[in-house]
Automatic annotation (TrEMBL):
This is GTP 3',8-cyclase. Pfam families: Mob_synth_C, Radical_SAM. It comes from the Bacteria. One of its GO terms (biological process) is Mo-molybdopterin cofactor biosynthetic process. SUPFAM superfamilies: Radical SAM enzymes (SSF102114). Keywords: 4Fe-4S, GTP-binding, Iron, Iron-sulfur, Lyase, Metal-binding, Molybdenum cofactor biosynthesis, Nucleotide-binding, S-adenosyl-L-methionine. Its EC number is 4.1.99.22. CDD domains: Radical_SAM (cd01335). PROSITE patterns: MOAA_NIFB_PQQE, RADICAL_SAM. Its cofactor is [4Fe-4S] cluster. One of its GO terms (molecular function) is metal ion binding. The keyword Iron-sulfur applies. InterPro entries: Aldolase_TIM (IPR013785), Elp3/MiaA/NifB-like_rSAM (IPR006638), MoaA-like (IPR040064), MoaA_NifB_PqqE_Fe-S-bd_CS (IPR000385), MoaA_twitch (IPR010505), MoCo_biosynth_MoaA/MoaC (IPR050105), rSAM (IPR007197), rSAM_sf (IPR058240).
């Protein structure tokens, strides 16, 4: 296998795929305006025709896997449970010998998919839940009823999926929900990760007045619990702490505690463009090179060189395009 590594020793080991860039939610940090036409999207009406085909996704993953020996693939979007060819794609990825397949979802369609995901061999899922309070949560995702998210989480937990919750914390929007979210996760026996708001898409040129830093998340939790920091795993996006009542929470602090130095992620969007770094909007189509190992390796090395040395600087691409 050709060595595709940069001078910091970073390699591509994890692939994140944005299966489609459409979504039935319009979260305020991800989508500029409300997408009325998307709010009622159902699986199978998902605009998957705008994405490259399952065969193309498979060919691209296979070619990259041959050169990099991918350890895991995360399926995301947009909303991956809206992608009509999700299960055939998972089957194809398994056939390539990649068994660690994960998914990130808003959980709206999780109730009806949890069992299917287990049967398809998906190991773990990340679920976005930005508040416990319906009104607060609804204003963030721009929907009036958030109950399906919680039903989805509970069904997924019962089905045996390994779950992590993700909450983007924003000043004045949901910072009041930090402790209620932690208590909910602890009761359910799952980890929660708080994300610092990232300047992506329509937020790229904003003042970022909503930004709520790691140290304030920590002090909010410390008002209620004693906490103990845990050891960070290699290439982990989050730092984790244990609380005095047995909960575990993480913080993904792009701004306060950047983690670019050992980043091992490669991204693929729904149009077939690969991205080496979240902070670099340059995408590369690799389909023309899948049968030429030498050229493909050079292209991948080029993408690796786009990684930031220290920290994320924002991007004009929205997370739902590049795959969160
Ligand atoms: N629709 C799925 C979901 O929401 O979980 C998957 C795609 S979403 C783009 C993936 C993750 O990106 C979510 O956890 C979401 O909260 C996060 N995200 C999107 N925009 C963000 C931003 N500007 N800053 C921080 N996190 C963001
Ligand atoms: Fe949809 Fe996820 Fe973006 Fe929210 S964060 S709009 S659920 S893609």
């Amino acid at each position: 296998m050709l060595k595709i590594e940069d001078k910091l020793g970073r390699r591509f080991e994890k692939l994140r795929i944005s299966l489609l860039n459409s979504c039935n939610f319009s979260c305020i940090y991800c989508v500029d305006n409300e997408f009325d036409e998307n709010a009622n999207l159902q699986p199978d009406q998902n605009g998957a025709d705008k994405s490259i085909s399952v065969e193309e996704f498979t060919q691209l993953i296979q070619a990259v896997h041959r050169l990099t020996g991918l350890k895991s693939v995360r399926l995301t979007g947009g909303e991956p449970l809206l992608y009509s060819n999700l299960y055939p794609l998972i089957e194809n990825i398994k056939k390539l010998g990649i068994n660690d397949i994960r998914l990130t979802t808003n959980a709206f369609f999780l109730k009806e998919n949890a069992e299917k995901l287990v049967n398809a061999g998906v190991n773990s899922i990340n679920i976005s839940v930005d508040a416990i309070d319906n009104k607060t949560f609804g204003k963030i995702i721009r929907r009036s009823d958030t109950s399906r998210v919680f039903q989805g989480i509970e069904v997924a937990a019962k089905a045996g999926l390994n779950i992590k919750l993700n909450a983007v914390i924003m000043r004045g929007k949901n910072d009041s929900q930090i402790v209620p979210l932690l208590d909910y996760a602890t009761e359910l026996g799952v980890k929660i990760r708080y994300l610092e708001l990232m300047k992506m898409g329509h937020l790229y040129h904003s003042e970022n007045g909503l930004f709520f830093p790691e140290k304030e998340i920590l002090s909010t939790i410390q008002e209620k619990y004693e906490i103990e920091e845990m050891k960070r795993e290699h290439a982990s996006t989050a730092h984790y702490w244990r609380t005095s009542n047995g909960g575990v929470f993480g913080i993904i602090a792009n701004e306060s505690t950047p983690f670019c130095h050992d980043c091992n992620r490669l991204r693929l969007d729904s149009n077939g463009y690969f991205f080496g770094c979240l902070s670099n909007a340059h995408g590369e189509k690799l389909m023309p090179y899948i049968d030429n190992e030498q050229l493909l390796a050079e292209k991948l090395k080029g993408l690796l060189l786009l990684k930031q040395a220290v920290k994320f600087h924002g991007s004009e691409l929205s997370m739902r395009n590049i795959g969160g």
